[in-house]
């Protein structure tokens, strides 16, 4: 297949790609188009990125039908093999320019055994070059490269089908097994500030994949001054235990807005948040002033703009407007919980949380991750078809794109923020707002 094997691009990205078919005897679920050993400019980004599984449900209120499958399973027809494709003009939201694109196309026919009802999937991976224009965060300080693990879908309904038999929910569980470089010193050798030129030098990694830490954050809708508690309404940095959290609830902000992940350093210090310059950023919502530049911290935000707004404007979530009824559930867990998580349960499984809460390797609840470990982050998108409108004949298609917000990866000096016009907030310290949580899977309880 043209889009598999060891792949490399002039924008700095390199990876290994496989079309994974299921092998139950070896415990391989068959994830379809899977990327591994992803690096940018020599810096390790992720061990693996995949769609773990997909679940469809019909519209019955009682005893709904449900099917579960992976993109590599025999029930899924590979319409076009993995390949490099022509680069689109922009990312799905229209702000950043991909330099490289990979794609595979699928179809599942006669869903629920109904003739003519099919669902198509377009799996697309987009990669941008490294830079700070357009900005990735509203101070404009952090250069980064962006990565989009997009999955588009469209359900096609046959004519004159009863409402209860149509696909009413589509759930897609993504898993990103990140692995950022771990360095033996706080300032990795070779990372130098080009002060005279007012820019940063591009560097090669001198580290190796090691333990990582992560944090969860909720932005304050009305930042109240230059303090951590003024910037964030809720924060857990670093996460004390494995966690499950709600990012989006029915197309509106949930309990959390973003995840950050960074490499562990030998002296136990933490990166600045906001302003983390060496690590992985994933934002599905920004505070309103990130778009408008107004408010108590507006004078610090020299790079505000529409890229930080969502489908409903400033402060809303960044989703495909064709999928307004969308939930995002997240789990951050140790990597060792992953093998057999999906295969080890009888299908069908609807409750995302049960994959973790009821996992046999966690009889005492979530395990500690505050000192750093190998981490996997799960993103479970659950899309509900809008049934409030009057039924149409023929039924309109149901579909859109998932993960349109993407992620961005920065690999600069950890302390460059001190050279920029942002005063110190104490942002390098642990952050627990409003207070340290109790042990438990779900945050907040």
Account of the 3D structure:
The chain is an all-beta fold. It has one domain (5-443). Helices cover 3% and strands 39% of the residues. It has helices at residues 228-231, 289-292, 354-357; strands spanning 5-8, 13-20, 32-40, 43-58, 66-69, 77-84, 98-108, 118-128, 145-156, 167-178, 181-182, 193-194, 199-200, 208-209, 212-219, 232-237, 243-249, 252-253, 258-263, 278-283, 326-334, 375-384, 398-402, 407-411, 431-433, 442-443. Strands 1, 2, 3, 4, 5, 10, 17, 18, 21, 22 and 26 form an eleven-stranded mixed beta sheet that branches. The relative contact order is 0.18. Mean pLDDT is 85; it is low at 185-203, 344-348 and 416-426.
Give unreliable regions as ranges.
185-203, 344-348, 416-426
Q: H/E series, N to C?
A: EEEEEEEEEEEEEEEHEEEEEHEHEEEEE
The largest pleated sheet is described as:
11 strands, mixed
- Number of domains as seen in the coordinates: 1
Q: Tally of extended strands?
A: 26
Radius of gyration: 22 Å
Bin the strand percentage.
Answer: 35-45%
Mean pLDDT: 85
DSSP summary: helix tally? 3
Structural class by helix and strand composition? mainly beta
Distance between the termini: 46 Å
> Level of helix content?
under 10%
Q: What is the 3D shape? A: globular
